[in-house]
Specification:
Blueprint lengths: L1 E5 L8 E4 L20 E10 L1 H9 L11 E2 L3 E8 L11 E4 L2 E2 L6 H4 L12 E3 L3 E2 L6 E4 L4 E4 L10 H21 L6 E5 L3 H12 L3 E6 L6 H8 L3 E4 L5 H8 L4 E4 L4 H10 L5 E4 L13 H10 L3 E4 L5 H17 L8 E6 L3 H4 L8 E5 L4
Helix pairs in contact: 3-4, 3-9, 6-7
């Protein structure tokens, strides 16, 4: 069966190849870390994100042990093909699989089902680090890591993985801050208008916050239209730099940073209002250096009771929460969520999906499961 494969560490090695068995066969483990019953899933489509591009262009990623190749893809949507006894899934059911698997040491977070908070760093991730991913016609997985979805999410279920990261960050922001003080946020700022940024804006709008996004996006662009449809404002980053938005917008209760630029992350921390929260979701790479007024920043954070934290990956309960939020968004704004998927590319034309187009928000690769 066809699969999109790369040789991590070798730039330009992404290719359409063939595998003899579904991706992940023989490597399935349950949540207890022991070999688990294998559920077979037919892939509908797989999203392409910045991590995939980094693997393809910069040699990032790691293959399974004793291999030099890796099946790509972690943002997935599929349908169950076969279910072993004892697994509460049905043939034909729409599912999405989580990404990260526990470390062999079974550190406390991993043992508690929170491998997204792994302490050792020896976790594996499907399609990224040590485990084959979902860019294949079929894959095998334990039912412990498969999230069933309703048919109403057929057109947007591929957004589940980025949605889970967003919802995890927002759940944590509200939980931590309300544990510290009385906190009823009214205004939010989202930095970035890619898929993660737009999903953050949408999930914040579902929480009845006033939302501004700041990004490099022209009026009439797909991102602008999505933001407008859900009642959020999209500001041009050139005319409205993040460093000035605290003064321009007034008190900002929560900032969700999703640009991938460390300079914006630093500006976002400074722009967060007193008693506010700044959630950093960008995985920045490179060797950029910045000059920061550390005394002023520290003083402002301390006197302002600011909370700054990072979020990455997500576990099962965040995926389940994201499914509820996606469902709520689909019901509230019919036809809008589908606009976040701006291109669908057949597996045979996968190279087109790895080349960004000006109006791209989320590009997905389609397989035979649709």
């Amino acid at each position: 069966m066809k699969a999109i494969i790369t040789t991590p560490g070798t730039k330009g090695s992404v290719r359409l190849g063939a595998i003899s068995e579904p991706s992940g066969t023989g490597m399935v483990q349950g949540a207890d870390g022991k070999p688990g019953a294998e559920v077979e899933v037919e892939v509908v489509e797989v999203g392409v994100c910045g991590t995939d591009l980094e693997i393809a262009n910069d040699g990032y990623g790691a293959p399974p042990e004793a291999r030099d190749s890796l099946v790509l893809g972690h943002e997935n949507l599929g349908r169950v093909v076969s279910v072993p006894d004892g697994v509460d899934l049905k043939t034909g059911q729409l599912v999405v699989a989580t990404v990260r698997r526990p470390c062999p040491e079974r550190c406390p977070p991993c043992a508690a089902g929170q491998s997204d908070d792994c302490l050792t760093g020896n976790y594996t991730e499907r399609g990224i680090k040590g485990r084959d991913g979902y860019m294949a016609e079929r894959y095998m997985e334990s039912g412990d890591y498969l999230i069933p979805l309703p048919s109403t999410l057929t057109k947007v279920g591929v957004l589940m993985e980025p949605s889970s990261i967003v919802e995890k960050g927002l759940i944590q922001a509200f939980s931590i801050q309300r544990g510290r003080m009385p906190w009823e946020p009214k205004q939010a700022l989202v930095c970035g208008a890619g898929a993660v940024g737009l999903l953050a804006a949408i999930f914040l709008r579902l929480r009845d916050l006033e939302v501004n996004l700041v990004a490099k996006a022209d009026p009439g662009s797909p991102a602008y239209k999505v933001a407008q449809a859900v009642g959020a404002s999209l500001l041009d980053a050139t005319e409205h730099p993040v460093s000035k938005l605290g003064q321009e917008l007034g008190h900002i209760d929560i900032i969700f940073e999703a640009t991938g630029a460390s300079s914006v992350a630093m500006d976002a921390i400074a722009a967060t209002g007193h008693n506010g929260v700044c959630c950093l979701s960008s995985v920045t790479a490179g060797t950029r250096t910045l000059t920061v007024d550390a005394d002023s920043l520290n003083l402002d954070m301390v006197l302002g009771n600011k909370l700054v934290f990072g979020t990455v990956n997500a576990n099962r309960r965040h995926f389940e929460a994201a499914a509820r939020m996606l469902g709520a968004a689909v019901r509230k704004w019919p036809g809008v969520m589908e606009q976040i998927v701006t291109r669908r590319v057949a597996a045979e034309q996968f190279a087109d999906a790895f080349t960004r187009q000006p109006d791209d928000i989320k590009t997905v690769i389609t397989f035979s499961g649709g």
